[in-house]
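Morning, I've got a small favour to ask if you have a moment. Here's the protein in full, and shout if anything looks odd to you:
***
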Amino acid sequence: MNIALLSVGTEILLGDTVNTNLSSLGQILYDNGFILSSEVTVPDNKNLIQKATQELLTDNDVVITCGGIGPTEDDFTKEVIAELLDLKLILDENHLEWMKSRWESRGLSMPSINIKQAEIPQGARKLENTTGTSPGIYLEHNKKHIFIFPGPPREFIPLVSDELIPFLKNNYETDKKNYQFILFFNQAESALAEQIDEFKPNGLDIAYLASRGIIKLRIDTNSVTPEEFQDFKTNIDNNLSEYILCYENSPASKVLLDKLKDLKLSISLVESITGGALSSEIVKHPGASEVLRSSNVVYDSSAKKQLLEKEITDDWNKLTEDLANASLKKSNADISLAILGEAGPISSSHNKVGEIFISIS
């Protein structure tokens, strides 16, 4: 069974909008036992939308579209698909009245251009959009299944979870793949791969997903026998344990947060060159308040002086240590970490551009 996503929007291809719907859909499908087979992005062009839809319906059992079903003149995904399948658009009077009432509840009259949002292809099923005005649409055509969803992620994701996933579970078997993850740090991708190849069993399906400072190893445990996988994992532990961050698909910030929680430790942060980025990563995760005691962004010299309550030194090794100690004392945390660095492009100190100083107290 193949599932495809058709993303519609010139703004995606111009780089004005990041297509987070793709990663969200892939993750939700995988979490529920399904795999996204392919994705195509097309601009707001009727001919290209029609061509892409035809091609995807040829090769896939389920096609999901996102974007192009709003009220404006560049929203015509629904109309193109209806024309492709030779279906008339029927005005859903109940949905139209519901939209009008939403506008009236805000003391406004609904613009006439919004009427087309209430038009549904003949024979299609309207899917409730709990966070927007354009409903989702489900169509079956020649034993192929089409889901037409709005583009905004806050509307797209609930429709995937509430409508697409139950449909897939009721009509298809889940995929046999079972992925496990290992996160490595302080290793070059090629060097890591060379070491792993020495004991990787034949047929093991793995992938290296590299990001800044971290390499994620994705392993399909069902691609080999349980015994072969266990031997592989044992070899990983024996040969590469010093480079392993965790055995889960989690960002490094969450790994840090969870470890501090387990140890019942609190932390305070002082950031200069990172501008609060580390703190921002930590507070993305639930439970950050149990661990993060305080965070100070001291980008300017006067801010560093204020935190220290004394003159600052030109020795940044010493300065970083002083800031960590001051933060530890003022926050009453168990651990304090300070990060300084020369950002450039022109050095404002005797330190080299790109040089980083980290101190832990």
